[in-house]
Design goal:
heterodimer, A: 279 residues, alpha/beta, Rossmann fold, 5-stranded parallel β-sheet, B: 227 residues, 5 strands
Chain lengths: 279, 227
Amino acid sequence: MKETYDVTLPGEAYDDLVGKLIVIEGTDGVGRSTQIRLLKEWLEEQGHAVLDTGLSRSGLVGKSIKRAKVGHTLGRITLSLFYATDFADRLENEIVPALRAGFVVLTDRYIYSLMARAMVRGLDPVWLRNIHRFALKPDAIFYLRIPVDELIPRAVFARGFDYWESGMDLYSTEDMYDSFRKYQTALLDQFDRLAEEFHFEVVDARPSPAEIFEKLREGISRVLSAPEAPPPDVTAAVSAASSAGAPNVAAPNGAVEPGPVRVLDSSGRSEDPRNKAQV
Amino acid sequence: MKRYGEHRIPGRLFVVEGIDGSGKSTQLLLLHQWLKAEGYGVVFSEWNSSPLVKDTTKRGKKKQLLTPATFSLLHATDFADRTERNIIPLLKAGAVVLCDRYIYTAFARDVSRGMNADWARELYAFAVKPTIGFYFRVPLEVAMKRIADARNGFKFYEAGMDLGLSADPDESFRLFQGRILDEYEKMIPEFGLTVIDATQPIEAQQRQMRQLVLAKLTQAKQLRVAP
């Protein structure tokens, strides 16, 4: 049983979502992707099917967002709506079907990052909360928190300054370092507020990756052992996987109507969301 | 972010709304010609005109990838792009901006597709409130008759085929447009739309429209560009 932030999309019923939705939030360079990789392995060892997903990975608009960011062509309201479209597409075509099939969905950021980034850019908090009201409430939100002074060496020495992560669209007169510092400070401030409002579980991201992993495992074990949903229908999941026709790939959305296979571009590369889910 | 009704900018924004076959585009074209001839700095802003978002929308429609939610959000994205890069700068520069369809089209379509009405309205809270929003009211049968000759079948989303109302595109179109008409009727008082009886002769409608527009322009003489 899952619910949204008060807006339900047409044709959706969420009372049969037996999987768990787990969000890993945190600012840039805090180590989210490392943790997600570790968690996925660990969960799979435990016998849980895992879908990992993240921002701008939808078949519908993911590539367009990336193109827009390269050219820095979109306005702030427009970019927020583009991200919301991407999120809606992934929610309906990946996340909900996976939860219905009993997967653990690990998502690298969620609507909170979208709101934090847009609020730093001066968008209306009420408007931002509204556009994301159709999102499913996660079973847990782990927020990897780090003070800006400790973030800087990590982010910068690991991969250099990035235009967007430095908020250069906001502080274009500053150099990348000053801009990065200002932007990430503002972002952390927004995250701290959201942490209270949306009940994040704050995880100190300063210790070693192994120690953070330990904390996350504890938290996730607690979520997974929480009494609630009956086990997913194994026969349905198996027959759905075999009808998907792709070897070694389970089809979370095969449990409902098999969706159309998406071909993104003329090169014929298939972007079927099913291919991202592995058992 | 300025919200609907909060923008204080010197230009004037006139928009036309109504179902397909209501004659709104014809009326807007005539208004455009007249304003140009009168020497106003007038710009026509079209729906779905932004290249980057347009490509995504086009692909989504062609491959029928869109749900009511993504249909709604993509159109809002496109409209935001147009508002941020086109409509607001033009209005700041003092132009008379004309739009064939506006946020009310989105509300009518989205709610007809089952989206939450309050959510949809807040989604477009960044839109500039038009100086006048014209609604061309026409009975469904009249509109259907007008477009029957003009085109060759309906497109998938245009006919609301994604809603499964009917397997027959013509019938689906009729049912979907009926829902849209109901939504427009609700919006007339809600947004103070100016109703034009679109069953009148074209000339009569245009006279009425010009009179209403002129009243809003005389309050802003500086809009007239030097010949």
